[in-house]
Amino acid sequence: MDTTTAQPDTAALWQNLADVLNALAAAGLHPDFHDRYGTCTNWQHQPYASSNFGNSPWVVFDLRDREYRVTTRERTLAGEHSRPRRRKPR
Fold first, then answer.
1. For 88, which of 8, 13, 64, 78 is 20 to 30 Å away at the CA?
2. 59 in helix, strand or coil?
3. How many Cα atoms are found within 13 Å in the side-chain-facing hemisphere of 77?
4. DSSP 8-class letter at 46
């Protein structure tokens, strides 16, 4: 068994996430976590977090760029972050 490819310690990343979630809760912006899935995302799971308080931004996993983006509810529901990559013409 090869032990040279040890997994990185992610405890600090999880603690950072907990700190950010606690800061949002302290500001009265308790986040809600969701998963868009279906024909609107070409049957790919698309996690996102939002808050039901005010006009707060949404954080959505952009399926094209494969990373989380801060965006708006309207842009997320319009499918802007769920469009597949365009294929390059040959």
1. 78
2. strand
3. 5
4. E
pLDDT digits (tens, 9 = 90+) for 58-81: 999 999 999 999 999 899 888 888
Identify how many contiguous H helices and E strands the chain contains and give both numbers: 2, 4
Phi, psi of 22 (to 5 degrees): -65, -40
- Considering the chain, what percentage of its residues have pLDDT values greater than 70? 86
Angstrom distance (rounded) from CA 28 to CA 70: 18
Residue 55 CB-density burial (10 A; 0-12 exposed, 13-18 middle, 19+ buried)? exposed
Residue 36's H or E segment, with its range, is strand 31-36
